[in-house]
């Protein structure tokens, strides 16, 4: 790999790491991160394809409230590097590699979030002095630390000889890699399950089943189904907003209380 | 005469927020969570976002120190919804700097009152619906052979929605001030949450049908070649069943990583045993 490709990869890793904590621009989602690493290493199409596959695995991983989900940014960068870079692993190997790095990234993330208290106290001292610029700098330094969280492991992986990585990968028996490749279709269920679990209440299950049955029976293209979903949602909201003004009002309230009780029970 | 000079001096001491401050606050809001910490979560992030406004409104050092300190208190909400809080707080801070009866406690109380409900709405809408739906559509674009357009659709679509929302929420909050709190009771937020949940669940249903696959090695079972038409229905039902099992496992507090590892192991065993192909 040329020097420029090295530097580009590290820059991408840094920004992906920054966005991994920000959760704003979504550079860290595999779809984008793997594509960028693919561009940096000169193997864009492999990066895009790996990104789309990893995206379906990580689709439900989200940091809600104070909970820290398995990391998305580090595995996206490392597997894209191993697949698109000089190690040239196959897609199956790239997917298998992603899971341990998701755990490593999560551990690093929690570690930094805990240690960040130290910087917060320095920000308090900046506030004691009324020094806005120093306070702002502390905020950006912590962003940089989160960028390093992905960049340094990426650098370490880059320093391992690609030939050695390739040998390691080919030492894994074919049964294991093919088995993992087959299970990617099943693993997608985990991500959807997280999302459904977050939103589910009794009435919503019918929407889930409706979407499912419609997709299976008609076999329509996903984009057409999305438009149908949008239309059905609009119709539903329009109807449910027309009724509460009439005598159904109290009924609606009862129903909502039921949902709340269900949610509390869970 | 005396009164006039007083007005002049207050006019100098108490500047209004400028458009540049507003834009700068908006830009900074995309970097809120950089210093997320277990002690006070997004506190420094909020202070960082507010800092152009603090600089403009409080030239006096003691007041500036007080403003920095009150925005370094605990804060945590769904990041994108935070722009609404920022807007309201900008409004309040401007009033306070203008000498209106807005106390520091009022400002902190408004932040605390808004962060809970907004967190409860923002995470399901943005992370539970918009992001999964957009990213799954984008992944479908990739697998339909349009390569780079998938990531571009996801990145551009998400950021247009996010930045558009952040900008208008900040503006809306700033213009309306604490009247925003009335919105919380008005039911509009409930409708938005409901619409997003309904749409999200419908889409999850279609995604399970399209994306979740258990590749049974059906050729092994001799009856199946005669009932090929059953195949689609059966594998769809298996996909739904698998998803329900995963929901159940997650409710039992199994971490998603373990669920994935278990499925990997099942995949390897199934392939070795000839059940999956």
TrEMBL record, chain A:
Key word Cell membrane present: yes
Subcellular location: Cell membrane
Chain positions covered by the region annotation Disordered: 245-266
InterPro entries named among the record's database cross-references: GatZ_KbaZ_carbometab, PTS_IIC_man
Short name of one Pfam family: EII-Sor
Main subcellular localisation: membrane
Cellular component terms per the entry's GO annotation: plasma membrane
GO biological processes: phosphoenolpyruvate-dependent sugar phosphotransferase system
Comp. bias intervals (Acidic residues): 252-266
Membrane topology according to the record: Multi-pass membrane protein
Keyword Protein transport appears in the UniProt entry: no
Record's keyword terms, sorted: Cell membrane, Membrane, Phosphotransferase system, Sugar transport, Transmembrane, Transmembrane helix, Transport
Residue spans crossing the bilayer: 28-52, 64-89, 95-112, 140-160, 180-199, 206-239
Descriptive protein name: Mannose permease IIC component
Organism the protein comes from: Lentilactobacillus parafarraginis DSM 18390 = JCM 14109
Automatic annotation (TrEMBL), chain B:
Transmembrane intervals: 133-161, 191-212, 232-250, 257-276
A biological process from GO: phosphoenolpyruvate-dependent sugar phosphotransferase system
Bilayer disposition of the protein: Multi-pass membrane protein
Keywords of the record: Cell membrane, Membrane, Phosphotransferase system, Sugar transport, Transmembrane, Transmembrane helix, Transport
Transport is among the record's keywords: yes
Assigned GO CC terms: plasma membrane
Pfam family, one: EIID-AGA
Primary subcellular site in the record, as a coarse category: membrane
Protein name per UniProt: PTS system, mannose fructose sorbose family, IID component
Organism: Lentilactobacillus parafarraginis DSM 18390 = JCM 14109
């Amino acid at each position: 790999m040329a020097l420029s490709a090295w530097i580009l990869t590290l820059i991408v890793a840094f920004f992906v790491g920054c966005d991994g904590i920000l959760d704003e621009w979504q550079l860290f989602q595999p779809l984008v991160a793997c594509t960028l690493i693919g561009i940096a290493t000169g193997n864009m199409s492999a990066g895009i394809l790996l990104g789309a596959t990893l995206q379906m695995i990580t689709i439900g991983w989200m940091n809600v409230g104070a909970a820290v989900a398995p990391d998305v940014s580090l595995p996206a960068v490392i597997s894209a590097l191993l697949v698109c870079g000089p190690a040239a692993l196959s897609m199956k190997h790239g997917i298998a590699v992603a899971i341990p790095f998701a755990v490593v990234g999560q551990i690093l993330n929690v570690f930094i979030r805990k240690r960040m208290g130290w910087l917060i106290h320095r920000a308090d001292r900046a506030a004691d002095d009324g020094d806005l610029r120093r306070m702002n700098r502390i905020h950006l330094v912590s962003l940089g630390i989160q960028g390093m969280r992905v960049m340094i492991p990426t650098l370490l992986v880059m320093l391992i000889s690609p030939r050695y990585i390739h040998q390691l990968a080919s030492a894994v028996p074919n049964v294991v890699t093919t088995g993992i490749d087959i299970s990617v279709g099943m693993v997608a269920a985990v991500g959807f399950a997280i999302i459904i679990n977050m939103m589910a209440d009794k009435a919503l299950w019918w929407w889930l089943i409706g979407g499912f049955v419609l997709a299976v029976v008609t076999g329509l293209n996903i984009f057409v189904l999305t438009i149908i979903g949008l239309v059905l949602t609009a119709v539903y909201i329009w109807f449910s907003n027309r009724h509460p003004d009439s005598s159904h009002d109290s009924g609606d309230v009862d129903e909502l209380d039921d949902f709340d009780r269900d949610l509390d029970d869970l | 005469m005396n009164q006039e000079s007083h007005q002049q001096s207050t006019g100098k001491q108490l500047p209004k927020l400028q458009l540049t401050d507003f834009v700068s606050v908006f830009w900074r809001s995309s970097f809120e969570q950089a210093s997320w910490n277990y002690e006070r979560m997004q506190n420094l992030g909020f202070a960082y976002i507010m800092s152009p406004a603090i600089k403009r409104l409080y030239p006096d050092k003691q007041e500036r120190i007080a403003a920095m300190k009150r925005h370094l208190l605990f804060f945590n909400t769904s990041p994108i919804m935070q722009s609404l809080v920022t807007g309201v707080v900008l409004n309040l801070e401007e009033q306070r700097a203008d000498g209106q009866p807005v106390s520091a406690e009022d400002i902190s109380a408004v932040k605390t009152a808004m962060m809970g409900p907004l967190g409860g709405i923002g995470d399901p809408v943005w992370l539970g619906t918009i992001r999964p739906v957009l990213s799954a559509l984008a992944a479908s674009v990739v697998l339909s052979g349009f390569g780079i357009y998938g990531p571009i659709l996801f990145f551009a679509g998400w950021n247009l929605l996010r930045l558009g929302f952040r900008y208008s929420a900040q503006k809306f909050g700033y213009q309306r001030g604490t009247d925003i709190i009335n919105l919380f009771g008005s039911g509009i937020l409930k409708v938005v949450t409901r619409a997003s949940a309904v749409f999200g669940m419908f889409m999850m249903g279609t995604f399970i049908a399209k994306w979740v696959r258990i590749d049974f090695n059906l050729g092994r079972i001799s009856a199946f070649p005669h009932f090929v038409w059953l195949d689609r229905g059966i594998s769809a039902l298996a996909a739904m069943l698998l998803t329900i099992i995963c929901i159940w496992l997650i409710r039992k507090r199994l971490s998603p990583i373990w669920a994935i590892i278990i499925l990997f192991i099942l995949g390897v065993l199934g392939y070795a045993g000839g059940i999956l192909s």
